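Give me C-alpha cells for this 337-residue protein.
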Amino acid sequence: MIISRTPFRVSFVGGGTDYPQWYREHGGAVLATAINHYCYINCRYLPPFFDHKYRIVYSQLENVKHIHEINHPAVRAVLDYLGFHEKGLEIHYDADLPARSGLGSSSAFTVGLCHALKALKGEYISTENLAKAAIHIEQNIIKEAVGSQDQTLAACGGFNRVDFLTNGEIKLTPVVANSARIQSFQNHLMLFFTGFSRYASEIAQSKINNFSKKEQVLHAMREMVDEALLILQNNNTSIDEFGKLLDEGWRYKRGLSEKVSTDKIDQMYETAKKAGAIGGKLLGAGGGGFMLLFVKPEQQVKVRESLSSLLHIPFKFEPEGSRIVLYQPDEAQAVYG
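Here you go.
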C-alpha cells in the first residue's frame, strides 16, 4: 500500500500567463505558494478475487475491468500513461478541501496519483519530472485547458517565483526575503470559501480564447510578479502595498473573461473591502471557489464578521511538495502477483 500527500496551492499574481498558449510565445511568470492543505491518494494492488480489475473511490465509486472503462479522466490517463494494464489496482482519494475550488486540486490529484503509482512500482521520480509528467497528462493527453503552475507547485512545494519560458522550460526560484517579512505577509492573508464550485477548464478556455485581445493586460499581470517581489524584499516598503497590488491584479483578471466573476462574488469582495480588506482575488480560473483577501491583522475580525456566511479557512505556506507518507510492501501482491 502507498499513500501520497500532495499540497494545494495559492497563487498571488501572474496567473493566466502560465498557459502554454500564452507563454510559448510571450513567456510568463507567477508568484505562488503551496499551502498546508492536501489531497491524499491511497493505492494498492488489487487481489484477483473480484469481478472488477480497477476500483476507484472518490466522490464516486467505479468498479471496472478495463482502463478505458474508467470515467475519471485523470485516473484513466495516468494508468494508461504509466502502463498499469496487467495488474489490478485500488485507488482511494481524500482531500482536506473541496475540488473545483481554485486551489489547484485537479493538478494536485494528478501529481499525487503519478507519485503514488511510481512508488507502487518501486520507482523514484524527481519533483521536476513529476511536474512534467502531470503537465503532459493534463495538457496533451486529457487536453484540459489548464496552465502549468498548479502541477509545478503541487510537485515541488514552497513559496516560489515560477517562470515559464518560450521554449517550454519551467524555472522555479524560491522567494528569498526577511523571515519576519514573510511571516507578516502570511499574517495578512485570509482565505474564504465562496460556496460556489465550478469547472475551471470552461472558464480557462474562455480566457484563452481572449488572449489575442488581452495582450496588454497579460503583460501587465506578468510584470506584477516583479512588483510583488520588490514589495516583499524591501523592508522599507509598507506590506500593505501587496494588498493594493492584489486588488489591481483582480481587476485585470476580471477583464480577461466575463466568466471570471459573478455579481454575487463581486458583492462579497466589495463587502470585504468595506470591512477593511485592502485587496484580494478569486483563486484559480475564477467563477467561484476560494477567495483570498489581504487584511491587516487588526481588521480581520471585522472582515470575518462581514463574511459570516462564508467558511474561513486558516492556512500556512507549505515548504514541501508531493511526498510519500506511507510505503508498505504489499504482501498480497507478493503472493498473487
